Every structure is written in C-alpha cells, then in structure tokens.
Amino acid sequence: MTRSDRIEELVGEADAIEERLRAWQESAVPPDVAELREGAREYQGWYARALKVVPEEHLDEFRDMYEGGSFITRIRGFLADPLARNDFYDPELVDNPFAPDKFRYPFESTFRDNLTRQRAVLVMSLESQAGPVLVLDELTELFGRLPDFLHVLDAAGNSNVPIPELTNEADLQVLVHALLRMHYDDVRAEDYVSQQAGASSRVDFLLRQSGVMVETKMTRPTLTDKRVGEELLIDWGRYQRHPDCRAIFALVYNPGRFIINPAGLAGDLSQVEREPVTRAIVVR
C-alpha cells in the first residue's frame, strides 16, 4: 500500500469514527461503557497510524488537535469523559444560543471541529505528495523498461542506430540524462547540494518542477547489495538538505548480476511514510 493509499484510507476512517462518536451525545439511549471504550480505542488507533504519515511540519498542529492544553479541551478531553454533564446547564435556556451546553465537553467543539482539522491536514498532505509520487511511478515504469530498450537496439544488428556502450556509471548517466530529457522539461544535471563539513555533494539529476532527485548506480564486483545500500543512504542524507528535494529516485543498473537480492534492496530503500519519499529499482 502506498502512502497516498494510507492517507485516503485514514480520511475515510475518520468519517466513520466521527459518525460513531456523534451518536454518543445525540442518541436518546446513552452508550454503555464497552461502546465508549471501543470507540475511544478506534480513534486512538487511527491517530497513531495517522501520525506516521503526517508531514513533520504539520505534526505539532496535528497533535495539538488531540492533546489540547490546560485551558483548551480537545479530542483527548472529550474521549476521557464524553458524557460528563455541565454543572451550569439550564434546560429552560435551551433556545438561548449563549446558554451552556448540557455536556461539559460538547461533541461539536471538542471532537468534531478538531477531527475536521486533522482530516484537513491529511488531505493537504495527500495533495502535496501527489506530484512527486506520480513522477516516481513514471520513473519506475520508464527505467523498468531499460533492458527492453537496450535489447531492441542490440537486436538491430548492423543498422545505423548506435548501440549505447554502458561500461561504467558515467556512460549510464549519459543515457539516463537523454531519456529524462525526452519526458521532462526541466532536467538539471549534477545539481549541487549545500556543503557539509566544508564539502559539497551533487545529485546526478534534479527534476526541478516536481522536486524529484534522480541518482544512478552501476554495480561491479566491489559494489554489491550492502555497499550500494550504504552509499545511497549516505547520499540521500545529504540530498534532503536541498531546498527543492521532495522525493528521491535511484536507478541501480545491475548488468553483471552483482546484486544478490534485488527485490530486498529495492524494498529496503523505498519508503513513503515521510518526505522526501524514496524509491529504488534494480534493473539488468
């Protein structure tokens, strides 16, 4: 399941949770203790999973909608005692808009309004991720077909179309650059990242419009699973400081089959829980 799928699932679950908990204060028959516990547990499980996909810059806001504070009651206060009565409630003032609610923690103001804001954070996160994730999907499909592309050229035999000779990583980068130019308008080669400890690093390519960084690796006898993974993680730690970095894509070209577990390497390096989203594929 992709990060976008998780967010969409969470948004849908929030709707169901809201309707379930609304009934606690609106129903003529008060919920029993078991229902209160199960409903609270359902929201808290939802909240724990949502924290894993909320962008870091929105985490404090998202948590505040749950935790509240000394003078502001939010979702946690509502869940602690949703049926607590307001000592100042007067049923004779029921038509007065300024009269106190009969519940100490009204559903609308302490739960629904805050859940609505949490849901809005998730939707904004979904929209902000849509562009980079879509580009990662495009790159995965494009470079997943690289062996077919090379095979067609090789099978052409004595035609006038030159066959790329990929003998090292520099050759691979030239081919990747050309393919990227066919699909994207703004491709920046060897874009520099801010300095660390007096030295700067550079990413192979930056797709400026989507904020996707593209890195290439070509395996060799001394560059196998563990070494490739270590090098990519070190590079990615630097790339995250680039102001335009929203996602990172790694193409690992493995014609000599020096990668023992391609699926495992790609899975370990691909994540969608936090920005920048990362994706790695191994082709040969």
In short:
It is built from nine helices and five strands; from the N terminus they run αααααααβββαβαβ. The protein has helices at about 5-25, 35-50, 60-65, 75-80, 105-145, 145-155, 170-185, 225-240, 260-270; strands at about 185-195, 200-205, 210-220, 245-255, 275-284.
Question: Any overview of this molecule?
Answer:
By secondary structure, the chain is of the alpha/beta class. The protein folds into two domains: 3-128; 145-283, Trna Endonuclease, Chain: A, domain 1. It has helices at residues 3-26, 33-51, 59-67, 75-80, 107-144, 146-155, 169-183, 225-239, 262-269, and strands at 187-196, 199-207, 212-218, 247-253, 277-283. A five-stranded mixed beta sheet has the order 1-2-3-4-5, sandwiched between helices. Strand 3, helix 8 (225-239) and strand 4 (247-253) form a beta-alpha-beta unit. Helix 1 (3-26) runs antiparallel to helix 2, helix 1 (3-26) runs antiparallel to helix 5 (107-144) and helix 3 (59-67) runs antiparallel to helix 5.
Explain the layout of strands and helices.
Layout: H1 3-26, H2 33-51, H3 59-67, H4 75-80, H5 107-144, H6 146-155, H7 169-183, E1 187-196, E2 199-207, E3 212-218, H8 225-239, E4 247-253, H9 262-269, E5 277-283
Helix pairs in contact: 1-2, 1-5, 3-5, 8-9
- Total beta strands: 5
What form results from the Cα inertia axes? Answer: elongated
Distance between the termini: 26 Å
How are the strands ordered across the major sheet? 1-2-3-4-5
The value of Rg in angstroms is 26 Å
State the CATH class of the largest domain: Alpha Beta
| Beta-strand content bin | 5-15%
Number of helices: 9
Mean pLDDT: 88
Strand pairing plus helix content: what structural class? alpha/beta
Biggest sheet details: 5 strands, mixed
Helix content: 40-55%
Low-confidence stretches: 195-200
Q: CATH fold name of the largest domain, please? A: Trna Endonuclease, Chain: A, domain 1
- The CATH architecture name of the largest domain reads 3-Layer(aba) Sandwich
Q: H/E series, N to C?
A: HHHHHHHEEEHEHE
How many domain units? 2
